[in-house]
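Quick question, first post here. What does this chain look like in 3D?
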Amino acid sequence: NNATMGCTQSTQHDDISVTERVMGGRRGIDKSERIHSRSERAKLAAKRAQVLAQAAENPTEKTPPKLNAAGHLVAEEVARRISGFVQSKETVVGDVKSGNGEDLIHVRYAALTQRGYYPDDPHKENQDDYFICGTKFGAGEGDAFFAVFDGHGDKGHDCARFAKKRLPAILASKVKKQRAALNAKKIKAMTENNQEKPKNAFHPSSWPYLNEKEYEYACEQAHIQCNKEMHDNKKVKDFLSGTTAISVGFHAGRMTVSNVGDSRAVLGYRVGGVDLDGTPAEEEKKEISAEDDSELVDAAGAKYESGSIIAIPLSDDQTPYRRDERKRLEKAGARILTIDQLEGRKPIEENVEDFNLGVDIDEEGDMPRVYCKDHNYPGTAFSRSLGDFVAEDIGVNGEPEIVTKKVTRGDEILVIASDGVFEFLTNQRMIDICAACDDPLHACTKLLEASYEQWLNFELRTDDITCIVLFLQSGKADDVAEVTRIMNNATGERKIKTIASTSTHQL
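> Answer (accepted):
Ran it through. Tokens below.
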């Protein structure tokens, strides 16, 4: 839902001439057009004055928001733009059928969203959206689903709302059907073996869980189907508009993260962990022989301090900054250029700089974008999305990248957010902010405040800012091998290794 930069929605999917004119110049979809020079700032100030003058001439139109001397929203205007939870909520997810308390995950959660401010479009609506189902998602007793959608383009708000409505519904339906089919197969086998069926054998609470691959497949197909439905829906104009989708589904004691675009999910993992009764897990390590021990270290080889909470990215931003995504897009026929390169201000180089999003902050702002081979559009700063019909032929598709992790003792904080949060905050900074809070709603509030402050430091405008924060509590022992695998698979923030054995045990 960052600035569309003139990317006006065409009324016809084949009106390429109109699209070419609209997308000419310093324009593109998603990410802000950073303003550095005095002339650019002067132009924006003139535009703001024009908006105010038009409002004065037409008192029936919406009143412009109140600004302070620096041209920023006053506190009361900022407060009006925030919506979401008024208090945190609680739920229990996990394997509720096992009868083992360690298989249950106690969750507290909250969500907030703040509408951005664009001086040249002060009444631009919030293009972010979120979805939360804290219990019985897809008829599963211990299932839940959390998602954030970040729309972009002239009709990005419509795309985000469509995805919010359809993606969870499609996934819930697929999971429910797969579990019902597994249950029917189980009952058939019991009948053939003359086994007595349990009570409520056909009730969803008795259905078998999906395994990791089955649930991931359901997530993948749900995104692909949602993308197709968006293209086919005549009420949703997704020619040059679309949305990101970052979601976390809880099923059978696992969390499965599905990502399309550049929104993000980050885990706050406590090294060492703590039992539900408050006993440090470190004491349990005494039962493990020293030669079987393994410790996590960062890329420089330094050990993480026991008890510290480290940020583990559960998703990788899908942008042309990623080498693998650039290759995939170029293979599909895309050009990867910055706006300065497109306009001839800088030479076109074969190798785009690799960027560790999540650790490094892109202060320059002229990020690589995706263009058709012979046209100066669509100019997307992401490499995957739901919608964006015109960009699909050059590789910008809705296929998600998926990561699954068993929820264990060390998993304490989970943040799902749009790039309004992450634009100027690193993953670790964001987790540190949450760790200093005693409640998820408090954490959401602090994230909004910190993100908004950073936007004002770098920009004359502010993006829409949305986050869901979950505080997790599980009694299940940590799995170092799994943590290592997830951290090593992250293309952005951390590349780590294990010392000594890679056997599974508590940290």
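Confidence is low (pLDDT under 50) at residues 1-27, 32-36, 282-294, 491-507.
The longest strand covers residues 104-114.
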